[in-house]
Amino acid sequence: MSNYTGSEIFSSKTKVDKKDSKLVLANMIWVSFALLIGGTAGLLQTLVRSGQFELPFGIGYYQLLTLHGVILALVMTFFFIMGFQIAALSRTAGSFSTSELRLGWTGFWVMTAGTLMSAAMIALNEASVLYTFYAPLQAHAVHYIGLALVIVGTWISVAGQLMRYFRWRKENKGQKTPLLSYMTAINNVMWIVCTIGVAATVLFQFIPWSLGWVETINISLSRTLFWYFGHPLVYFWLLPAYMVWYAVIPKVLGTKGFSDNLARLAFVLFLFFSIPVGIHHQLVDPGIDAFWKGLQVVLTFMVIVPSLMTAFSMFAVFETYGRKQGARGLLDWFKKLPWTDARFVLVFIGMLFFIPGGLGGIINASGQMNQLVHNTIWIVGHFHITVGAPVILTYFAAMLFLLPHITGRKIDKIANRLGLFLAYTWALGMGIMSLAMHWAGLRGAPRRSAFSEYGGADIASEWITYQVMQAVGGSFLFIAIIIAILLFLKLTTGPKVNDPEEFPVAMFMDQEEPVVKWVENWRLLIIITIFLILIAYTVPVTQMFTENIPGAKGFKLW
Ligand code: HAS
Ligand code: CU
């Protein structure tokens, strides 16, 4: 396009650089592989929980559940996020330098090594501790070391990405950075700050304890450090999806984004409020004063705001687009949306899922209601309609244009149709499965548990229908995963073309406006972030050291 203005003008780049593309592709290959393995595990779990199926070859339910969580929630997402952010930077800020690229590759290989170590321990049945690895369940030390390496690998890759971002800023002093590059920087800075928590608990608690150097572990502290990381983790997954919603979708529609400044503000709010809220996962845990739980609940309600801003922006974009297409009346614009473009449909269905997904989050975060849903399968329903639908469907949409873009191909009719099938099958499967999970959860069905009749208890018999529904949903999801794999193969093989698929990046209605300066004042942003963390965590964490909590020995319950 010749009429690029504002931040786009500085990024004369219109493509992901060739060398960078290889790294992006390597990451995306891991995504497909992880999806297949993790999805198969998921299907088998729903079958076990239906009560109609037993796992063969002595595979344990919790072993499989650990594999499912680790490979999908951690491995698949991390590789996607690294690949996508590298692509977004290369596309909008320009190619990576040799040293930046080298960091990307080193990170990739360290993540690969860590993943293989953990996967081997899970396969050997030495690490059935689920993806949250709650103490006092104790895995083999190699499992924790593997997970630590996965995190260290992301740090190395993120270092390369941040260097690319700051190099752009140095070379273009005083200008506003391309929006997508800015967004990757926010996500990466948030990531560095929050992973310090999980690194601390793994290095100083889990590894020495699993090696037998110390006998006991402080459970409260380990969980708190985990959730200090575990909540921002969910936004680390979500923000790349939001990058697509804000910066890609308007371009797919052929219209402008609502506001570049508003998008940046939303991301800043995520940086501020994602981290000091982890205790909303511990609202029923002992050892944390109600006051600090309450404070983190209030902060949780703050982190809802940027998602509401995002919803508002999306409605604005859709309506503007629809009206341009001649829509009249209140809701006519809805019909004018491009219902045959898989890039749009995948994302839109994801957004629809996020309406109940977000509402469920607000229910979880509300102190009293959390008592009802905590540790029930409602929570599993919640995270399947957040990370398992809006986030992953958007990742699919991104791969739909990114894979042909980086390999020199186009989305042809068949690929587009596969994408549409994928969207609908996924929606059907996830819809049935997660609805059943929410219902069963409200009737008390526990999460993290294999099939049991609980000695014929009446209440347990109420759950069975829902568990069968979950298996039906799980089966559709498995079909969807096969479609996804076929789609990725289709997008990366076959004849190349001269003008490959574009990586769409939108302009904004306020493109000509100057950017609000403080949103790129990193010193200020980091100070505020740390300040909020100190307020939320200093006292509860100090109490965990001073209140003489008895340590726990390790247990291997499988
Ligand atoms: Fe959550 C537990 C609270 C969002 C993931 N969450 C989890 C766990 C995961 C997870 C994995 O407070 C389980 C962890 C474990 O293993 O124990 N969650 C929230 C809140 C939000 C939230 C307040 N969660 C997410 C996202 C996730 C995710 C996002 C993944 C990506 N969550 C909790 C709490 C717990 C919890 C408690 C602990 C529960 C317990 O007891 O264990 C908020 O961020 C949600 C804000 C979102 C919205 C939605 C905005 C809607 C949008 C779509 C607009 C649609 C459009 C299209 C434009 C308010 C942006 C519409 C068009 C039309 C035409 C209609
Ligand atoms: Cu959370």
TrEMBL record:
Q: How does this chain sit within the bilayer? A: Multi-pass membrane protein
Keyword Cell wall biogenesis/degradation annotated = no
**What GO terms are given for molecular function?**
cytochrome-c oxidase activity; heme binding
Cytochrome oxidase subunit I profile domain: from which residue to which, for each copy? 28-553
Do you know which InterPro entries this protein is assigned to? Ba3-like_Oxidase_I, Cyt_c_oxase-like_su1_dom, Cyt_c_oxase-like_su1_sf, Cyt_C_Oxase_1, Cyt_c_Oxase_su1_BS
The places in or outside the cell where this protein is found are: Membrane
An annotated GO cellular component of this protein is:
membrane
Is-annotated flag, keyword Nucleotide-binding? no
Question: Which residue ranges traverse the bilayer?
Answer: 23-44, 64-89, 101-124, 144-166, 186-207, 227-249, 261-279, 299-321, 342-363, 383-406, 418-440, 468-489, 524-545
Main location per UniProt? membrane
One Pfam family of this protein, by short name?
A: COX1
Which UniProt key words apply to this protein?
Electron transport, Heme, Iron, Membrane, Metal-binding, Respiratory chain, Transmembrane, Transmembrane helix, Transport
What's a single GO BP term from this record? Answer: aerobic respiration
**Which Gene3D superfamilies does the UniProt record give?**
Cytochrome c oxidase-like, subunit I domain
Q: Which family does it belong to?
A: Belongs to the heme-copper respiratory oxidase family.
Recorded protein name is Cytochrome c oxidase subunit 1
Species for this entry: Jeotgalicoccus halotolerans
Q: What is the lineage of its organism?
A: Bacteria, Bacillati, Bacillota, Bacilli, Bacillales
